[in-house]
Design brief:
With 92 residues, the chain is mainly alpha-helical. It contains two helices and two strands; from the N terminus they run αββα. Residues 82-92 have a biased composition (Polar residues).
Length: 92
């Protein structure tokens, strides 16, 4: 009998933090204190922007990347050669 009560007490002690976390999470979400939403944690890739549900108006990295690409294209349309870093390049 004491072994069963010991295991019951150990189980209650081990599960108490999870139960407390669950209870506090539900109370915070119900009262509106916990303001976590899935759209706060969007994933993005380099030179791609947001991976899921990408909205061009909200994606500032995408707009910045597009601006950089346009600047590179306009620079190479005016000067199609790559600048060299030798002594024959710019002199100061």
């Amino acid at each position: 009998m004491t072994t069963a009560l010991t295991y019951l007490a150990l189980t209650a002690i081990l599960l108490a933090p999870f139960a407390l976390t669950f209870t506090l999470g539900r109370a915070a979400r119900r009262s509106g204190i916990l303001r976590l939403h899935l759209d706060q944690f969007q994933q993005a890739g380099p030179f791609v922007g947001r991976l899921f549900g990408s909205d061009q108006a909200e994606d500032r990295d995408g707009l910045r990347t597009q601006h950089d690409i346009d600047a590179i294209r306009s620079r190479f349309s005016e000067h199609p050669s790559w600048p060299t870093s030798s002594a024959s390049g710019e002199r100061r």
